[in-house]
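Methods — Computational structure assignment.
A single polypeptide chain was analysed. Its primary sequence is given first, followed by the predicted tertiary structure written as structure tokens.
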Amino acid sequence: MNFCYQIDFHAVGQGLFTSGEIHHNKSIFRWVYDCGTSSQRKLINDKVSSLIPNGDKKLDLVAISHFDQDHINGLITLLGSYEVDTLLLPTLTLEQRLLIGLRTKIQSSSQIMHFLVNPISFLSKPHFYIKRVILVPESIGTVSPIEPPLLDTPFPTLTGDFESVESDTDPPSSRSFTLHQLKPGGRLVTGSFFEFVPYNDSYVWSKVTKSFTAAVRRFKTQLLSQSNKEMRINAIKELRKIYDSNFGNNSMARNMISMFMFAGPIVNHPNQCIVMFQTGSTDHFLFQSKLHNRKCSLYTGDGYLDNKIRLDALKSYYGKQRLERLQCFQVMHHGARTSWHPGVAQSLKPFFSVFSSDPNNKLGHPHADVVRDFLPFHPIQIDKTRDFSLHICCR
């Protein structure tokens, strides 16, 4: 089978915006993973507007790892600019989504807060064209086997192990897309040869307190009001007071969920593949034989691999066959040491290790000890000006 694919890490500073595309039989499949920055908004808006230079306005898959602003504040621009076949989101309760918005001090009247309170309603806006939304629950056990699916599907159609579900906030008649949930261990496949495998580690969530849950329940009607925006904003303001009294000024850094996503060919290609990667204006060429048949990528968002238990759970879920073909690894949380522990790099052994951050940001990402851990694995720094592109062709 002949195909080419590429992945791109876009220069958006302290944030993450990645995309990719697969070329096969004169057709193209395009995806995006995360779309946000805490640096200048112009960075993300410019990259979104120039994402597909030939004027095509279709994205086959958009995946969002979690709901922090530096990963989603470009999503509204993206959804308003392109038709999206499938939007992939981690499953979160209303209480969990509210905790994110309140912890990160998102303004009560902002569009991002509206999205967090009621994402299904928000995504049904008439100027968004989304065909379906797939929710990813907590990942338990092991993933689907790596073999090709039993039923062949034409490229670039995306199929997978998901089933229809109902929203707990909106009836089907109020939305413009179908709603689904990924089955345990499920994956998405296009053309029967390329897979996308999400991993939703919700273990890092802090427990939502009973008093906060009770308060959310008390204000639920106002929060979900579609006709009275002021009522919704006032309810959020009241919950903010309750949040402050429950949690004080604690950052609650650990209450973040982040959906990982593995992407790559399902089977090893028997022929030699050529790899080109670009950093800045410089092109580099490699032969696949030097990379030991590595053609796959792992996105992590702001995920936590901060101890051996979580790392082993991730490795067990994806399995040795997938991870031994890992070529490109997006280092967790912009290279923050709180999401890492020594030895992560040696355990995963990627060929490329990508840090997406602004080294001049006050947070100091990436942290030096994380960078040192990944030094043997070709670390690449993406910032406000430097992109990274990886092209793989197998014929």
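Note: Residues 251-255 have pLDDT under 50 and may be disordered.
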